[in-house]
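User: I'll paste a sequence; please echo it back and then give the predicted structure.

Assistant: Echoing your sequence first, then the prediction.
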Amino acid sequence: MSLHLGIRRTRKHRAVDAVTQLRDENRRLLTQLIGAHDHIAIQDHTLAEVRVHLAEAGQVVVCLSANVEELTVERDQALAATVALRARLVPYLAADANRNAVTVPDSIRDTTAVEDQATAPINVLPLWQAHGIGPVIATAGSTDPAHLPAA
Protein backbone atom coordinates (compact mmCIF):
# COMPACT_ATOMS: atom_id res chain seq x y z
CA MET A 1 0.00 0.00 0.00
CA SER A 2 1.36 3.38 -0.92
CA LEU A 3 0.84 6.51 0.93
CA HIS A 4 0.41 9.52 -1.30
CA LEU A 5 -1.19 12.00 1.05
CA GLY A 6 -2.44 14.05 -1.89
CA ILE A 7 1.08 15.27 -2.85
CA ARG A 8 2.10 14.40 -6.32
CA ARG A 9 5.33 15.24 -8.04
CA THR A 10 4.78 16.88 -11.35
CA ARG A 11 7.22 16.89 -14.24
CA LYS A 12 8.39 20.42 -13.56
CA HIS A 13 9.98 19.46 -10.30
CA ARG A 14 12.10 16.63 -11.55
CA ALA A 15 15.88 17.05 -11.27
CA VAL A 16 16.46 15.40 -14.63
CA ASP A 17 14.35 18.11 -16.30
CA ALA A 18 16.32 20.83 -14.53
CA VAL A 19 19.60 19.33 -15.75
CA THR A 20 18.23 19.22 -19.29
CA GLN A 21 17.15 22.84 -19.06
CA LEU A 22 20.57 23.84 -17.75
CA ARG A 23 22.30 21.97 -20.59
CA ASP A 24 20.07 23.72 -23.13
CA GLU A 25 20.83 27.07 -21.55
CA ASN A 26 24.55 26.25 -21.52
CA ARG A 27 24.39 25.34 -25.24
CA ARG A 28 22.52 28.57 -25.99
CA LEU A 29 25.02 30.66 -24.02
CA LEU A 30 27.97 28.99 -25.76
CA THR A 31 26.36 29.80 -29.11
CA GLN A 32 25.98 33.44 -28.03
CA LEU A 33 29.59 33.46 -26.83
CA ILE A 34 30.84 32.19 -30.19
CA GLY A 35 28.66 34.75 -32.00
CA ALA A 36 29.99 37.53 -29.76
CA HIS A 37 33.56 36.39 -30.44
CA ASP A 38 32.89 36.52 -34.18
CA HIS A 39 31.36 40.00 -33.85
CA ILE A 40 34.36 41.21 -31.82
CA ALA A 41 36.73 39.81 -34.47
CA ILE A 42 34.83 41.68 -37.20
CA GLN A 43 34.92 44.89 -35.15
CA ASP A 44 38.67 44.48 -34.52
CA HIS A 45 39.23 44.06 -38.25
CA THR A 46 37.14 47.16 -38.98
CA LEU A 47 39.07 49.10 -36.33
CA ALA A 48 42.36 48.09 -37.95
CA GLU A 49 41.09 49.28 -41.36
CA VAL A 50 39.97 52.58 -39.85
CA ARG A 51 43.37 53.07 -38.25
CA VAL A 52 45.06 52.44 -41.63
CA HIS A 53 42.78 54.99 -43.29
CA LEU A 54 43.44 57.44 -40.44
CA ALA A 55 47.19 57.10 -40.93
CA GLU A 56 46.79 57.66 -44.69
CA ALA A 57 44.62 60.71 -44.04
CA GLY A 58 47.26 62.04 -41.65
CA GLN A 59 49.90 61.72 -44.36
CA VAL A 60 47.64 63.48 -46.85
CA VAL A 61 47.06 66.32 -44.39
CA VAL A 62 50.79 66.74 -43.84
CA CYS A 63 51.42 66.83 -47.60
CA LEU A 64 48.58 69.29 -48.20
CA SER A 65 49.75 71.49 -45.35
CA ALA A 66 53.22 71.70 -46.89
CA ASN A 67 51.64 72.41 -50.29
CA VAL A 68 49.50 75.19 -48.79
CA GLU A 69 52.54 76.76 -47.18
CA GLU A 70 54.45 76.69 -50.49
CA LEU A 71 51.49 78.18 -52.36
CA THR A 72 51.08 80.88 -49.71
CA VAL A 73 54.72 81.90 -50.17
CA GLU A 74 54.24 81.95 -53.96
CA ARG A 75 51.07 84.03 -53.62
CA ASP A 76 52.80 86.55 -51.37
CA GLN A 77 55.69 86.82 -53.84
CA ALA A 78 53.29 87.27 -56.76
CA LEU A 79 51.37 89.93 -54.81
CA ALA A 80 54.58 91.82 -54.06
CA ALA A 81 55.58 91.61 -57.75
CA THR A 82 52.13 92.87 -58.78
CA VAL A 83 52.38 95.85 -56.42
CA ALA A 84 55.84 96.67 -57.78
CA LEU A 85 54.64 96.42 -61.39
CA ARG A 86 51.62 98.62 -60.68
CA ALA A 87 53.90 101.22 -59.14
CA ARG A 88 56.02 101.16 -62.31
CA LEU A 89 52.90 101.33 -64.51
CA VAL A 90 51.33 104.42 -62.86
CA PRO A 91 53.26 107.02 -64.93
CA TYR A 92 52.29 105.25 -68.16
CA LEU A 93 48.61 105.13 -67.14
CA ALA A 94 48.68 108.82 -66.22
CA ALA A 95 50.32 109.75 -69.56
CA ASP A 96 47.73 107.68 -71.42
CA ALA A 97 44.87 109.34 -69.50
CA ASN A 98 46.27 112.81 -70.24
CA ARG A 99 46.72 111.96 -73.91
CA ASN A 100 43.12 110.73 -74.26
CA ALA A 101 41.48 113.37 -72.07
CA VAL A 102 38.54 115.38 -73.43
CA THR A 103 39.64 119.00 -73.16
CA VAL A 104 36.94 120.75 -75.22
CA PRO A 105 34.78 123.13 -73.17
CA ASP A 106 31.04 122.40 -73.06
CA SER A 107 30.13 125.51 -75.02
CA ILE A 108 32.28 124.52 -78.01
CA ARG A 109 31.54 120.83 -77.90
CA ASP A 110 29.81 119.42 -80.98
CA THR A 111 26.38 118.14 -79.95
CA THR A 112 25.03 117.21 -83.35
CA ALA A 113 25.23 113.50 -82.56
CA VAL A 114 22.18 112.20 -80.71
CA GLU A 115 24.19 110.62 -77.91
CA ASP A 116 26.07 113.91 -77.30
CA GLN A 117 23.01 116.16 -77.02
CA ALA A 118 22.49 117.80 -73.69
CA THR A 119 19.37 117.05 -71.73
CA ALA A 120 17.26 119.64 -69.97
CA PRO A 121 16.47 119.20 -66.31
CA ILE A 122 13.19 117.42 -65.75
CA ASN A 123 10.61 119.59 -64.04
CA VAL A 124 8.79 117.39 -61.53
CA LEU A 125 5.57 118.86 -60.16
CA PRO A 126 2.54 117.42 -58.44
CA LEU A 127 -0.25 116.59 -60.92
CA TRP A 128 -2.67 119.22 -59.61
CA GLN A 129 -0.01 121.93 -60.00
CA ALA A 130 1.17 120.68 -63.41
CA HIS A 131 -2.42 120.85 -64.76
CA GLY A 132 -3.14 124.21 -63.15
CA ILE A 133 -5.84 123.08 -60.77
CA GLY A 134 -6.03 123.50 -57.03
CA PRO A 135 -6.48 120.78 -54.46
CA VAL A 136 -10.10 119.64 -54.14
CA ILE A 137 -11.49 120.13 -50.66
CA ALA A 138 -15.07 119.19 -49.93
CA THR A 139 -16.53 121.14 -47.03
CA ALA A 140 -19.97 119.49 -47.27
CA GLY A 141 -21.67 122.75 -46.35
CA SER A 142 -19.63 123.27 -43.18
CA THR A 143 -18.67 126.80 -42.24
CA ASP A 144 -16.41 125.65 -39.41
CA PRO A 145 -12.91 127.13 -40.05
CA ALA A 146 -11.28 123.93 -38.83
CA HIS A 147 -12.56 122.18 -41.97
CA LEU A 148 -11.47 124.88 -44.39
CA PRO A 149 -7.92 125.13 -45.72
CA ALA A 150 -5.78 127.96 -44.37
CA ALA A 151 -5.37 130.81 -46.81
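The chain has a mean pLDDT of 82. The chain is about 60% helix and 0% strand.
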